[in-house]
Amino acid sequence: MKPKITLKDIARELDVSISTVSKALKNSKEISKETRDKIKAFAKFYNYRPNNIALSLKNKRTKNIGVVIPDIVHHFFTTVFRGIEKYANAMGYNVIVCISDESYDKEVINMEMLANGSIDGFILSLSAETQKKNDFTHLKELLDQGIPIVLFDRITSEIDCDKVILNDFEAAGDSVTHFVKAGAKKIALITTEKYFNVSESRKEGYLAALKLNNMALDDRLILTLPHDRDNTNLITEFFQNNDVDAVLCVNEIFAIQCMSILQYIGFNIPEDISIIGFTDGILSKFSSPKLSTVAQHGEKMGELAAKLLIQRMESVELVEEPFKTEVINATLVKRGSTIN
């Protein structure tokens, strides 16, 4: 049995664009007869069958964008969605949002549901289970069908598409250096499972900054927490058993939780222990003391993701542009949880 092929496969094998293949199979006069005949013969030999979902999407522009985010607990994803909607609406597009709830299955179901002709393209951040499984078949299939995708924040190198990310490595390093300049000697990292690409980048930035500042690494000062459980006991035991004077947390929720537990134990913040988290959200602004954070500029990230997707969708009949990875530069917002 011959393997199932896509427009992308035909284009690659015959060294032409996907657009050329599509037009040739529709017998477009824009394509020379010789090229049309060659493409049709190749497609027939491999029993190519057009995908109805892709055809529906190509032929009936809905002006709808599908957005899939992992959760709505983290303020960051809310701000990204706001940025997507702001830019998309200004360009005449509507936005349909689904939540994967950190589930691979829900992510796949959401994308299949939306890819029935009701949207023109996707913007998404990968769920925890998708990153853990390292299975991106559902994304590859959509891309092969000609449905454009933009990944943001939680991405993978396994997928060739446009992406928008934060300079996580540098942002974490800058936070550690800020601690060092304020006199910190024992800097802890509160992170989550390594399959989260953003957490791993932040951990690498933390490690690099320790080395840059001539500080020895103490593995006991790195606490890895499950993303889907109550970590109160783990955090409490960590601070009771380790001498720490500064803490970098890879997200806002961890940071607020650490600050609350430390105060309950009897530590003063920032006099005894300074804390920096990621995401400049509502919790950071109204905690006591107010949390110093790495602002991820989620709204800007969302606007840029929407811009990349719309540009890709509106240029489908032109020569394909190389995929881009845009990097948003974070900003350290210094508040009461650190000695400034």
Number of helical stretches of at least 4 residues: 14
Q: For the record, give the distance between the C-alpha atoms at the N and C termini, rounded to a whole number.
A: 67 Å
| Proportion in helices | 40-55%
Instruction: Report the order of strands and helices.
Output: HHHHEHEHEHHEEHEHEHEHEHEHEE
Largest sheet: 6 strands, parallel
Shape: elongated
Q: Please tell me how large the radius of gyration is.
A: 24 Å
Poorly predicted ranges: none
**Which strand order do you get reading across the main beta sheet?**
2-1-3-4-5-11
Structural class: alpha/beta
User: How many DSSP-defined strands?
Assistant: 12
Mean pLDDT across all residues, rounded?
91
Q: What fraction of the residues are assigned to beta strands by DSSP?
A: 15-25%
Give an account of the 3D structure.
The protein has helices at 7-14, 18-25, 33-45, 52-59, 75-90, 104-114, 128-133, 137-144, 168-181, 197-212, 232-241, 252-265, 282-286, 298-313, and strands at residues 64-69, 94-99, 121-124, 149-152, 162-166, 187-192, 222-225, 246-249, 274-278, 292-295, 325-328, 331-333. With 340 residues, the protein is α/β, with parallel strands linked by helices. The chain has a six-stranded parallel sheet, sandwiched between helices. It has a six-stranded mixed sheet with strand order 7-6-8-9-10-12, sandwiched between helices. Strand 9, helix 13 (282-286) and strand 10 form a beta-alpha-beta unit. The longest helix has 16 residues, at 75-90. The protein is elongated, with a radius of gyration of 24 Å. The protein starts with 6 loop residues before the first helix and ends in a 7-residue tail after the last strand. The model has no long low-confidence stretch (mean pLDDT 91).
